[in-house]
Amino acid sequence: MRSTSHPGVVSYAVQGQDNELLFFNNGGIGFTLYVHGKTAALGALPVWNGERHAVCATWRSNDGTWQVYTDGVLQASGWGLNVGGKVRSGGTWILAQDQDTVGGGFDRNQAFSGELSQVNLWDRVLTPAEIGTDFCGQHGNVIDWATTDIKVLGQATNDEYRCGCPKIYYINVNGVCYKYYPEAKTYAQAQQTCAADGGLLAMPKDDQTNNLINSLGSGNRWIGLTDVANEGQWVFENGQALESNGYSNWNLVEPNGGSGENYAAFSWTGSGWQDWPGNSAMPFTCQIGEDLE
Ligand SMILES: [Ca+2]
Ligand SMILES: [Ca+2]
């Protein structure tokens, strides 16, 4: 999930109990898990930084044990939640809102604003290894996200969730994972940020990739291309010479900075490239996955 709001996230209502199962943020910093109207305070969860996060809540009937994990890390746990209870069948599931009646009773202040995906439900408590750090490829035995028909209502829209990156906040496009970093850094600092993720500054090696990387941000942004080793000999971050690749997208008159400008960036005008001094600070995009050799 990814959001900056304080909402009802997953709501399951049955006749006579609109909080049969509910994962909810109480408007402040704390989350609450409801089982058959009973509550466990999960506390604050580190999920409000605009990145994607994997959240998993568990509950066991016989002793009411509950746990909540984010990105594979146990954040809180307790016991005594609705001991011996059952979650009844035949109700209605709503994502991104809280039901106060079955299928309705919505409060506009409890709408989730953000992205939700890979919502699965099991009839048993998963092991920590099963919970893991990402939910791509999971298949709940009660609700399987991959095969469940989801109705899109209200202002919600449907989009493809691009699974399959080693870091969940990267998006997968044709087997390569990208993340845009909006914070301004020097070229060297941007290189370090990408390296810490196990990647490189994004390398636009064809028109399609260039447009994709450009679409992730705006303004001046570093790309993984430099002539610092030999003036005029532009080389991608993975060591491939620009010339041997056969695609470039320099703006008119660029590159024009000689030995004073040894690093390539998108310009504020769009997807064209310019050479620029590396000690300037600007946003950038990292890539991991394919094409790092
Ligand atoms: Ca240069
Ligand atoms: Ca220039």
UniProtKB/TrEMBL annotation:
<keyword id="KW-0479">Metal-binding</keyword>
<dbReference type="InterPro" id="IPR013320">
    <property type="entry name" value="ConA-like_dom_sf"/>
</dbReference>
<protein>
    <submittedName>
        <fullName>Neuronal pentraxin-2-like</fullName>
    </submittedName>
</protein>
<feature type="domain" description="Pentraxin (PTX)">
    <location>
        <begin position="1"/>
        <end position="165"/>
    </location>
</feature>
<dbReference type="InterPro" id="IPR001759">
    <property type="entry name" value="PTX_dom"/>
</dbReference>
<dbReference type="Pfam" id="PF00059">
    <property type="entry name" value="Lectin_C"/>
</dbReference>
<dbReference type="InterPro" id="IPR016186">
    <property type="entry name" value="C-type_lectin-like/link_sf"/>
</dbReference>
<dbReference type="InterPro" id="IPR001304">
    <property type="entry name" value="C-type_lectin-like"/>
</dbReference>
<feature type="domain" description="C-type lectin">
    <location>
        <begin position="173"/>
        <end position="287"/>
    </location>
</feature>
<dbReference type="InterPro" id="IPR051360">
    <property type="entry name" value="Neuronal_Pentraxin_Related"/>
</dbReference>
<dbReference type="InterPro" id="IPR016187">
    <property type="entry name" value="CTDL_fold"/>
</dbReference>
<dbReference type="Pfam" id="PF00354">
    <property type="entry name" value="Pentaxin"/>
</dbReference>
<dbReference type="GO" id="GO:0046872">
    <property type="term" value="F:metal ion binding"/>
</dbReference>
<keyword id="KW-0325">Glycoprotein</keyword>
<keyword id="KW-0106">Calcium</keyword>
<keyword id="KW-1015">Disulfide bond</keyword>
